[in-house]
Amino acid sequence: MSLTSDMIRGHTETIILAHLLEGDSYGYEINKSVQQKTDSQYEIKEATLYSAFRRLEQNEMIISYWGDQETGARRRYYTITSAGRAAYHKNKQDWEEAKAILDRLL
Fold this sequence. Notes:
Elements: H1 3-9, H2 12-20, E1 25-26, H3 27-37, H4 46-58, E2 62-66, E3 76-80, H5 82-105
Antiparallel strand pairs: 1-3, 2-3
């Protein structure tokens, strides 16, 4: 695992919240989006993704519900809460500040 992947993994919850700002979604769809946006350079491992979902739900940043698919496996959808939106904006601001400092130092 490269340092880049380790650094990105530290932002998994913010990445999920960013995706959910666009609308309700489920695990496979979120991971597929991450892969597409990074030209397959990064994917969230399933265990990491679902651990993040549990933490976000315990902290009331997301809520989940079962979809009503008539065919195929049932999907568990996630939606962002107002606490999740606030956390996303705070994390994004923190990232911008850290990035600015690192840009000056490196």
